[in-house]
User: Fold this.
Amino acid sequence: MSLESLALDPLAPFRLDGRVAVVTGASSGLGERFARVLDAVGARVVVAARRRSRLESLAASLTDAVVVECDLSDASERERLVALTLSEAGRLDVLVNNAGIGATVALEDEGLDWFRDVMELNVTAAWHLAKLAGPALIDGGGAIVNVASMLGHVGATPVKQASYCASKGAMVNLTRELALQFARKGVRVNALCPGWFPSEMTAGMESDEGSQRFISTNTPLQRMGAEHELDGALLLLATDAGSFVTGQSLIVDGGWTAR
Assistant:
């Protein structure tokens, strides 16, 4: 794309026409929104999660989506997701590693198996999918967006969740390393780090008086984010609009981590 065309149409680089984007954890919350946004800018979206009925409902509202029911904590299911994407859609240009789990639990009550489960889905699955998708992404000069969290940069307590913070911190530095390894191969890797947004993980916080007081007191913009307030950040990292951005964490948190 020439500099002249960019000057004439600065919105053009934000399009994904003719490209294929995989969104994991797409059956609800932020993942569902990400799938809708990528569809809106022209991508053919592969929606992946465990709940088929929700995926099918989402796909019915998208242009030409591919539904892949899968459990990404299972390595063979990750392999199947990439294989189905390439067989059904013919290419893979954008990988959004959004699937993840977390819970509020004090260290003394947090089980070893739970910690392992969180790391497996939040970190190992993202690493494995990047590895599996790598050849296809290299062919098309694609992009990986790892959905981490502001809690990959700061601690969470009094919302106690050591495993979640550890996994998101790992994802942030995994992003840096993958960006370096992929850079000369034409693939960009960045982390999108939301603050407090409505999702299944934060369910109830938006209506709980104590939670809202906690968020408004500690967030300079004094509120939770709205779902559409991640759209621009996602598109910057997933499209040619961010063609010179790699290895970065884009924190969208209302100023939480600025303190």
User: Anything to note?
Assistant: The mean pLDDT is 94. The radius of gyration is 18 Å. The longest strand covers residues 188-194. The beta strands are 20-24, 44-49, 66-69, 94-97, 143-147, 188-194, 249-252.
